[in-house]
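Hey,

Quick one before I head out. I ran the complex with adenosine monophosphate overnight. Inputs first:
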Amino acid sequence: MITVESAVEIILKEIKPLGLESVDALSALGRVLGEDIRATRPNPPWDNSAMDGYALKSADIEKASKDSPVKLRVVYDLPAGQVPKGPVGDGEAVRIMTGAPVPIGADAVVMVEKTERGGEGFVLIKERAKKGENVRRAGEDFKNGDIVIPAGSVVRPAEVSMLATVGSPFVLVHKRPRVAVLSTGDELVDINEVPPLGKISNSNGYALAALVSETGAVPINLGIARDNKESLREKLSIAMNSDCIISSGGVSVGDYDFVKDVLKELGSEMIFWKVAMKPGKPLAFGVIGGKPAFGLPGNPISSMVAFEQFVRPALLKMSGRGRIFSALLSATLTKDIKIKPGRMNFIRAELTIDASGVTATPLEGQGSGVISTMVRANSFVVVPKDSEGFKAGDVVKVQFFDPSVFTRETPGY
Ligand code: AMP
Ligand code: MG
């Protein structure tokens, strides 16, 4: 048996980020930038007012207070979007709106709440202001030529904001992997059929397609292949047009487990592993025409756990990401975990994060076909290969599989 760590390492060595394509700024959401974004102008572009108020010379109002306000002549109004009509002189002020360029001569803005009208054409300033107060300086955010988003960044709404700010309507991002998803088994029927005796619903096809989508990749649903070489050949040759192939089932040592044979026929140097993990022992992996192919186990939880450990990091790497492993949190166990040593166990658990800390509750029903436990779980407690388990109160490592917390470059088990 091979360890989980070695399997991850061997797989990731074969995976390369996909090429780049140009998309518009909004479509870049969730994608990985394939180029540095550089500013071609500073932000703010010019000194501007952070407040609605009066632009003035701070030296003029050094003595201003509530009891003895300073009276200044208002020379003009300056709404946002307009250009100053002229400089501010001694004893003068400009009525300025938030975002309008600060006129030459002014070095501070006093907010309107600290002023009072001082008769026709005048204002009373009731508080002093420091030089630079309420002025947003040109270039204080970034300078012309700065790298404002480095290549490799995942585009979130904040990055979209930056792209718009610097005026990048189109950007280069890594292509999304197109992933063929195939289920195998004579016992499978589709979601809309009521399974007769002996048959079950093809849950893996849907689960795996959902997991693929969640990584930002595009699932291509190839449906169900039957447990014979012809059916597998037919489906898998269609799968060759994708960037990555995932199948489930048919990789054990049963009489009808042909997936690894057919993948081999299609030209893959296939590696067949018994990975020292639970759930999810059997795993086939190979590269066909430069494309990774994963033969995942058939048991529903096994296939999902194997996806989390091997396929998700691979797809994230293909998508251009550097941080491809989920957050690994330290959590206090609320119940004992007792297992047979020899395999790394992934125990479905409910992770709770609150003011008193992070706790993990292992759930009842850890069988590899128990989907209801997976529905209630938000994490896996990682039990190392040679451990016999843990006691309540022990601090354990927990993979938190909320897709928004993919924070690690290495698995870190
Ligand atoms: P296998 O590895 O093909 O022997 O499958 C192991 C177990 O997983 C069997 O109980 C299968 O019925 C079940 N299984 C295989 N494929 C699927 C699937 N696509 N959806 C749900 N269960 C499956
Ligand atoms: Mg099968």
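The chain is about 20% helix and 35% strand.

Talk tomorrow,
K.
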